[in-house]
Structure formats: structure tokens, C-alpha cells
DNA sequence: AAGCTAATGTCAGTCACTGACAGTTGACAA
DNA sequence: TTGTCAACTGTCAGTGACTGACATTAGCTT
């Protein structure tokens, strides 16, 4: 056990390169098959066969058939979380979240394109929303992410998530807007990263003013409004 | 194919009675096993064996293992929808929803108890929230129900669901409150129907004022507030 | 080149779920 | 009562997702 690099993947060996290739191939083929034949009408064997690996190998890369469908989402989300953690503490929670998404969109484009065409990702997005099993998974993942973001926001503002409802409320509003923007992007024609960025910005700007008010002060009693 | 009664189940024959018994037994046993051993550690065979029917028969009563877990929820929800449809049109959307739940809680108690002990239903509720696969299903079901309610509300108020966001917003707020009440009930000690009714009422009364304002008037432009 | 080990393949097995077909049993009429 | 029909149920075989165990292959290291 010699020295290892801590950064994401790749110790630059041939091994890691092949692994990357296999994973990418599985992902691309899976999404392609899902979006053309439908998720339920695509078997894991089909995917594995197309990439010429065993089914067992597929499950070594992805814990489940479901997980492949969300692989790109996962990339985007973790990028967002990283950006959020990096925002300067002076920023209010809403500004931080807003800048984190926009920052994420700036850099994630190439990362996605390196793995799958953005257009394929958009088709995948549509498929997720129209496949009950995947929609369920999507909703669960969303609440998980919300909880994670709420925790980060609470940390930033030094609030207690258990007693102060404001982090969760703000995050819920924020992710709600994000979901609307995402859905609109999926329904639209423009598959570019530009368009999703623009949409996000537009929608978030509608929400901002309502949340800008007094933070870092004790919560009001229930029923009192801050807007 | 002779004359049939259109009402729920039971043509009072021995046949229907046996069917009811089998279904109830499967449901009760399933929930009991789920809540004691955990959902994933319970196989359909176990359930079927305990009731002394074949696995195939289980699947004739319930489309999936998942469906059993939500059988009681299903009862409550359809009861709520029925009550909502029966509310007089003079009531505003919020009042109608509120009265529908409270009305539903008044009558659903016995219906539940006739099938499973309320206490078992409460344990089931907790289990659903703590089992990822079931939580996902729960969220999806919730959004389905929300959509259904939004449609009813839009109808009542003669609004277009596609262009007017208010029905969905109101329903989202309403179901959000309901979810909080439900979760609290699940976490609490008191497994009675009384307590869920009281909780519901308490929480809804906090929300009411904010939604009481001018309905049946054209929607404002985005950004304008009504509170 | 030899040895270590990560990556992969193979195989057997579990579990959810389904279609097909056969046996059983209430319901209803003669 | 008895016979017939239709509804229930059981059995069986098969598919597909997923897992553990073990053998095999192929980079990496010295």
C-alpha cells in the first residue's frame, strides 16, 4: 500500500483509464437504450452485452439499474454542493444558493459533455419524469438533497435545524424553483447548457426579494410574516 | 352475467366474504411482519404462507409487495377525495379541503379499525418513512394525490390548471401541512384517531388566514403578493 | 520475469413478479 | 338436488434484478 492521490479517480494508470472507459460506456449505452426503448423494457443484460462485459460487472459499477439513470444528476448535484460549501460566509443563504447553482452551471457543462451528450441528458431527464419508478426515486433523491442543503445553510447561518424552520423553508422554496426551471428545460427545445442557466437565473430572480429579509435574528413566533 | 350491485365490494355471497377475509388477513399479516422484521426482510412467500395461500394468490389481491404497505393510506385518501367532492360549492378551496379532511377523520376511524388496529397503521406509517424504497413510493403517491386534489379545486373554482398556478400552490401548502401533521402523529405516543384529528385541525388553523384572500379573481402578475 | 492484487467472469441462488393451465368451489338454474 | 358455469386458487415454469463465492485475467510493482 504505497502513496495514493486523494483526488477524484484516476491514478493515471492504464487500469483506471479502462475502468473509466467501461463506466462511461455502460452509462452512455444505458441512457441511450432507456431513452429509446424505455426504462422498463431495457434489461441490464442488454446493457452489459452491448458493452461486452458481464452483468456482474455492470453491478460493480452501478449499485442498481436505477442508479445509472441518475448518474449525471448525481454529478450536477455534487458539483452544486461543492460550490455551495465554497461560497463566502458573508453571502446570505439565498445569495449563496443562487451563486452556487450559477457557478455550477458554468463548470459542469464540459464535465457532462465529457461523458454523455447534453442532448442525451435532456432526454434522460424527460424519461425520468415520465417513468413512475424513476419519478419516485427522483423525488426521494430530491428530498435527500434538500436535507443536505438545509444542513449546510443552517451551518452557514449558525442556526439549529431542529428548532428553526427557516433553513428548510428557504431551501424548499429554492429547490421548488429549481425543479420548475428543470422541468421547463426538459420540455423545451433548447438542449444547451446556456438555456438551463438562463432559465435558472430568471426564475431565481423572481424568488429572491421574498427571501432577502432579516436573517441571523431569532425566528418570529409562528404566524408572523417577514415579507 | 346477471345484475350486479355497483357499490363497493360484497354482493353478500359467501364468496365475497371469503375474499374479504383473505384480503384482510394478507394485509394484517403483511403489515405485522413488515413492522416487526422490516419491509425488505419480509418476503411475499412468508406472508402468503402465514395466511396459507399461494404466492400467486397474494399477487391477485395486491399488484405488488409495495401496494400492501399503502393499502390503508389508500383508504384514507379515497375517503378524503370523496368528502372533498361532496363539499358545497360555496366553500372556498381551503375551507373545503379543511372540512374534507376533518370530515374524513370522523368516519374513517371505524373503517380502518375494521381491517387493522390503528396502532398497527401508525407503526406502518413510521416504517414507510424510514424505508427508502417505501418513502420514494410515498412521495410519488403524494404528488399524484396533490395533482388530483388540484384538479378538483380548479374545477370547484372554475380555474384553468394550466394557466393559473393558484390551485397547485394552495394544494401544495395544504398537503405540506398535512404531511407535517402526519409525521408528528407517527412520531408521537398517541395512536388514536382523536390525536391525528386534533393535530390536523391545529396545524391547518395556522395556515388558513394566509390563503383566505381573494379567489375567483384573475391571477395577478408574477411577483405580486396577495397576503 | 515473478508475484501481488484489482478487475472481471462464471455460477448458483434469492426474490419479486407474470403467464398459462389445471383443479376447486361457490352461485344459480333446472 | 344436481349439474353447469364462472370465479378463485394452486401449480409450474420462466424472466429479470440483484448478491455472494470462487476462479480467472490482467495491470502494477519489484
From TrEMBL, chains A, B:
Keywords: DNA-binding, Transcription, Transcription regulation. Residues 43-62 bind DNA. It comes from Streptomyces enissocaesilis. This is TetR family transcriptional regulator. Residues 20-80 form the HTH tetR-type domain. InterPro entries: DNA-bd_HTH_TetR-type_CS, Homeodomain-like_sf, HTH-type_TetR-like_transc_reg, HTH_TetR, MftR_C.
Amino acid at each position: 500500500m504505497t502513496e495514493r492521490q486523494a483526488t477524484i479517480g484516476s491514478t493515471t494508470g492504464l487500469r483506471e483509464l479502462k475502468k473509466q472507459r467501461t463506466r462511461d460506456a455502460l452509462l452512455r449505452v444505458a441512457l441511450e437504450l432507456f431513452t429509446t426503448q424505455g426504462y422498463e423494457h431495457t434489461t441490464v443484460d442488454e446493457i452489459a452485452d452491448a458493452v461486452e462485459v458481464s452483468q456482474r460487472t455492470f453491478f460493480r459499477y452501478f449499485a442498481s439499474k436505477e442508479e445509472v439513470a441518475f448518474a449525471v444528476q448525481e454529478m450536477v448535484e455534487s458539483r452544486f454542493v461543492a460550490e455551495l460549501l465554497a461560497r463566502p460566509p458573508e453571502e446570505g443563504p439565498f445569495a449563496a444558493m443562487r451563486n452556487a447553482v450559477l457557478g455550477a452551471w458554468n463548470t459542469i457543462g464540459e464535465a457532462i459533455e465529457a461523458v454523455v451528450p447534453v442532448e442525451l441528458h435532456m432526454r434522460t431527464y424527460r424519461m425520468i419524469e415520465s417513468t413512475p419508478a424513476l419519478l419516485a426515486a427522483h423525488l426521494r433523491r430530491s428530498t435527500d438533497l434538500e436535507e443536505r442543503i438545509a444542513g449546510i445553510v443552517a451551518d452557514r447561518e449558525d442556526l439549529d435545524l431542529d428548532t428553526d424552520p427557516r433553513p428548510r423553508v428557504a431551501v424548499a422554496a429554492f429547490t421548488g424553483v429549481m425543479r420548475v426551471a428543470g422541468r421547463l428545460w426538459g420540455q423545451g427545445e433548447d438542449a444547451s447548457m446556456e438555456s438551463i442557466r438562463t432559465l435558472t437565473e430568471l426564475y431565481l430572480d423572481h424568488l429572491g426579494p421574498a427571501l432577502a429579509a432579516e436573517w441571523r435574528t431569532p425566528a418570529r413566533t409562528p404566524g408572523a410574516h417577514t415579507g
